[in-house]
Amino acid sequence: MPSAAAARDAGFDEPDALAERLLILLEGATATAAMRRNAETLDVARSVALEPMDDRSH
């Protein structure tokens, strides 16, 4: 899984689990955005996905 490799390279603990969680988040946000015909859900998902990176920078 390419996302797991990127997470591993970035030094995240449990990169496979992180990649799986991010994929589920993306799939859910994509489905919700399509049903609502509104991309706001994707913006929220992006914000949530960036939280682990923000936490690492502090």
The low-confidence parts are none
Average pLDDT rating: 88
Query: What is the end-to-end distance?
Result: 27 Å
Helical run tally: 3
Q: Indicate the overall shape.
A: elongated
User: Helical residue percent?
Assistant: over 70%
**Count of discrete structural domains:** 1
In percent terms, what proportion of residues is strand? under 5%
Task: Characterize the largest beta sheet: strand count, sense, and whether it forms a barrel.
Answer: none
The helix/strand series, from N terminus to C terminus, equals: HHH
Structural class: mainly alpha
Return Rg in Å: 13 Å
Tally of strands: 0
Any chance you could write out the topology, listing elements then pairs?
Blueprint: H1 2-9, H2 15-36, H3 40-56
